[in-house]
Design brief:
This protein is α+β, with helices and mostly antiparallel strands. Helices cover about 15% and strands about 45% of the residues. It binds the ligand N[C@@H](CCC[C@H](N)C(=O)O)C(=O)O. Ligand LBFN2T5F binds near residues 78, 161, 214 and 223.
Length: about 280
């Protein structure tokens, strides 16, 4: 069977986008994501994002995100900007769009060519929001977490999906493939967790790497970048109400914490190619 797709990336966090507005999400989507995400052997991506018909009145579309291991996540920050760009270039020529996600509708505003700003909604550091267990009710800010034989100081943040943020001296020297899986599958996170390692350059500039639940190291994570800035705001490092510039392996995202602990994210959304593959 032939399958049409669009490959898009936001800060090099790349997904295969499928137009499922009329057809619905393929029944074998988990297997499809595992198969098509394989680098070197297939299209290669961090997963699949299905663009579906909206469920909320007035929304322009809905996204469902499947990681490279086939698991479904609630939300993808880099993906939601790409969905806005895809809708914009496929007939929904509005400067502000609303996209339904697994963590509620998000409003996305076009700020320039291939540049979008997302109202990400609020964050929470409470254990029940992630969920996290064996760590108390929270807020889970600067808590000890023993992973294999080392104890780290972690701040746990939900932005719809779960994140564990760790401040380190030097992100480049970390061997994420060695330490990432043990965080992801730590028993304190029954639904697994995304893990962000962040180096503080100064109070408004950060450098971050991420080990994503279900996809391994990716070159950027939008929700992870939001969670990182939220964590560093809770830790008193980053000021709320100011733009925080976060350097990722694949580019820069700008995050601002607004009043009410709400997050605003600005970043690129780029179409790589459109194609047809045999599945
Ligand atoms: N890369 C994404 C997040 C994708 C989902 C994540 N791996 C999860 O399982 O929660 C982003 O840009 O936010």
């Amino acid at each position: 069977m032939k399958l049409s797709f669009t490959k898009m990336q936001g800060c090099a966090n790349d997904y295969i986008y499928l137009d499922c507005r009329e057809s619905g999400v393929p029944e074998n989507i988990a297997a499809l994501s595992q198969d098509l995400s394989r680098r070197h052997f297939s299209i290669g991506a961090d997963g699949i994002i299905c663009i579906c018909a909206p469920v909320t009145a007035g929304a322009d579309g809905r996204m469902r995100i499947f990681n490279a291991d086939g698991s479904e996540a609630q939300m993808c920050g880099n993906g939601v900007r790409c969905v806005a760009e895809w809708l914009y270039t496929h007939g929904v020529a509005k400067e502000t769009l609303v996209v339904d996600t697994g963590s509620g509708p998000k409003t996305i505003t076009r700020k320039g060519r291939q540049l979008w700003q997302v109202e990400m909604g609020g964050y929470s550091a409470m254990a029940a929001a992630l969920p996290a267990v064996n760590m108390g009710e929270g807020p889970l800010v600067d808590c000890p977490l023993t992973v294999e034989d080392r104890t780290w100081r972690v701040t746990c943040i939900s932005v719809g999906n779960p994140h564990c943020v760790i401040v380190v001296d030097d992100v480049d020297s970390l061997k994420l493939e060695d330490i990432g899986p043990a965080f992801e599958k730590h028993p304190n996170f029954p639904e697994r967790v995304n893990t962000e390692f962040v180096q503080i350059v100064d109070s408004t500039h950060l450098k971050m790497r991420v080990w994503e639940r279900g996809s391994g190291e990716t070159w950027a994570c939008g929700t992870g970048t939001c969670a990182t800035v939220a964590a560093l705001t809770e830790l008193g490092v980053c000021p709320a109400g100011e733009d925080i510039h976060v350097q990722l392996r694949g580019g820069e995202l700008i995050i601002r914490v607004l009043s009410g602990k709400k997050l605003l994210m600005t970043g690129s959304a780029v179409t790589v190619c459109e194609g047809v593959t045999e599945v």
